[in-house]
Shikimate kinase
Amino acid sequence: MGAQSGRGKAEGGGTSAPESLLLERLGTRCIVLVGMPGAGKSSVGRRLAKRLGLPFMDADEEIERAAGMSIPEIFASRGEVEFRDGEKRVMIRLLQGGPIVLATGGGAFMNADTRAAVARLGVSVWLSADLGVLLRRVRKRTDRPLLAEGDPAEKLARLLAARGDTYALADLTVESRDATHEAVVDDVLAALGTHFQRKAEGQASPAPSSAP
């Protein structure tokens, strides 16, 4: 179930008061969207970045720019192992340039070094989606090498089973439901606001001392 809807932009195109507070609490960290192919990381990420007035970066696009070829071409010519190594390097470089909204490839969060960098330099949000929603979305795309051959439904189901527990390690989980991208952005903003509020309350209210 998605998080409760957050408030929209203030009149005049700026950020609303809750969003300004969120940015203050975010500091130099990145908002990192993780999840399956078709979860809407890029579409939601672009709109989220616009709402917050932050730069948006797509890790897959940056990998293609660094390699000088498309991701399917990298898979075909260099293999998945080399792709994942390059993906990790690009991810760490992007994370060091925060604050940004960063959309990751479906397998990026599987790498332990990448997860550690995300934990250190960002706030991770798993955009979780039902298999049916994912399948409808990925069928519109032809640039996903891991789904290029065979039955996409079967492959997606296997990927989700293999990756779900790792995605669940993200700081937050928001359902990328069958709704408008703006509605999902509202859910992400609400979840982030709650996350930072709880952290602020925890820092402001230390545990009582056991000393007499």
